[in-house]
Each structure stands twice: as C-alpha cells, then as structure tokens.
C-alpha cells in the first residue's frame, strides 16, 4: 500500500514542475492600476517602469548603433582598482590588501596572514599578521591580545589551566577594639607631717687621761753561747793512720791527723 502512494506523489511533483508560473488575473489587475487605491494609481502613472520586467532603467539610456560594439564593463573586484581596499578601510588597525580579487585584512585572515596566500595551520589564528598557536601562546591565549599574567602558562587556550588552585586569601584582620579609657587615679592621700626629731643629747665630756708614769726599762740578759752538738749520736771515730802503710822513719805525715782534709 505504501509503494503506490509514493509513486503517485512523485508523479504529481513532476507534473507540477512543467506548468509555467504566472500571476493570476487579480494580481495583474492590481499591478495595472485597476485597483480602487488612488495612491497606487498615482504611483503607476508617475513611474511607468515599475511594471516592466526590469523595473530600473539601464545605465546607458541612449541606444547603441546596430554595428557598434557596446561599452565594456569593468572587471568586478579590486584587481583593476586596488586602491579601493585602502579607501574603504574604516578600521585603523586593519591592513587591507587585494588578495584573490577581494579586499582582505591580512592582519587577521587565516588564509592570507601577513601577505596574500600565507595560510595558517589548523587551529591557529592570525594575530597582527603572524600565525600564532593560541593554545599555548602566553601573549595570545585563546584569542589575539589575551595576555596571561607573569609566571602563568597558557594550556589549551586558558591561562593557568594546569596550575594549582591559588590559596584562598586570608581574612583581613579584624579591626582592633578601642582600648578602654583609663580610670582616673584617685587623689593621693596627704602624707602625714613628719614628727619633729628629738634634740640630740649632749655628748659627755671626756675623762682626763691619767698622769704619765715612766715604765722601768727591761733588763737585757746576755746571750748564751750554743753548745757544740755532735753531728751523729755516736762517739767520734778514732783517727786512722794515713797512709795505711807505715811511713819511713819516725815522722808522721802532716795530714795524718786529718784524713778528711
């Protein structure tokens, strides 16, 4: 059942495509001024070219001779007039050039970056006429001109993507409480008047010294002579003859009496 319905629908579409399109009678009467609107009648009367196939008149109103070649139209685009790109530039930082017969800003166009035909790699942007990888550039992070702070890296077009989370800022110190006003010190008690010092007692008069009496001079005793003491507690040894052999004759030598000398 579905296949016949599909075939019928295709047949109707093909048949409708062969019928020429045109305006209905009501529409034609409306455009030709048969309407009862006075404003529309006035417009059609003053501007008769509205109902024509080309409503606006051609650029050249004078007819061309049959054998004369018509005027050549200028080529479209900026190739014949490159100064047009500079004249129509309304942006002060744009660098307009005529590339591929079109006015292109070579300072931001990824297909013509810096010059015509210079194409930036995929996912790169053209910043000030230079191809920049905005995924890792700290001076153009994510977009042209987005500069990351000092010491922060650019990863995946975001500043500080792989950086640790910053530590929370400490709470500000609370304002110190005002010190209480010191209590007034009580008035000091008056010091008692000092007692009068007692009058010093008069010193007793010194007793007179006894009269001087001469002492008797001590009697000096004469020193006793010390007794000679023997060097040893033994009796003195007898003198041995010196020399041991008897001398010749009856005389003893001079040192026989004192062998130690």
From TrEMBL:
Matches recorded under Pfam families: Stig1
InterPro entries: Stig-like
Keywords assigned: Signal
Compositionally biased residues, Pro residues: 233-246
Record's compositionally biased regions (Basic residues): 214-230
Residue span of region Disordered: 164-261
Comp. bias intervals (Acidic residues): 164-206
Signal sequence, start to end: 1-24
Assigned protein family: Belongs to the STIG1 family.
Entries under PANTHER family matching the protein: STIGMA-SPECIFIC STIG1-LIKE PROTEIN 3, STIGMA-SPECIFIC STIG1-LIKE PROTEIN 4
Name the record gives this protein: 4Fe-4S ferredoxin-type domain-containing protein
Organism expressing this protein natively: Manihot esculenta
């Amino acid at each position: 059942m579905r296949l016949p319905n599909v075939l019928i629908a295709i047949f109707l579409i093909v048949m409708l495509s062969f019928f020429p399109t045109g305006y209905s009678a009501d529409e034609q009467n409306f455009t030709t001024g048969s309407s009862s609107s006075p404003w529309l009648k006035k417009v059609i009367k003053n501007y008769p070219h509205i109902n024509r196939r080309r409503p606006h008149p051609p650029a050249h109103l004078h007819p061309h001779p049959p054998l004369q070649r018509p005027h050549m139209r200028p080529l479209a685009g900026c190739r014949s007039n490159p100064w047009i790109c500079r004249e129509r530039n309304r942006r002060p930082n744009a660098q307009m050039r005529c590339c591929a017969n079109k006015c292109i800003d070579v300072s931001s166009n990824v297909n013509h970056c810096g010059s015509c035909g210079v194409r930036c790699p995929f996912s790169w942007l053209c910043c000030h006429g230079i191809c920049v990888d905005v995924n890792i550039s700290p001076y153009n992070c994510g977009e042209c001109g987005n500069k990351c702070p000092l010491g922060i890296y650019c990863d995946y077009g975001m500043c500080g993507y792989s950086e640790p989370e910053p530590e929370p800022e400490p709470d500000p110190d609370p304002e110190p409480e005002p010190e209480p006003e010191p209590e007034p010190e009580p008035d000091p008690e008056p010091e008692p008047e000092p007692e009068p010092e007692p009058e010093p007692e008069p010193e007793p008069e010194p007793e007179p010294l006894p009269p001087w009496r001469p002492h008797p001079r001590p009697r000096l005793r004469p020193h006793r002579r010390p007794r000679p003491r023997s060097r040893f507690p033994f009796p003195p040894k007898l003198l041995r003859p010196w020399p041991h052999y008897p001398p010749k004759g009856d005389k003893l030598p001079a040192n026989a009496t004192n062998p130690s000398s």
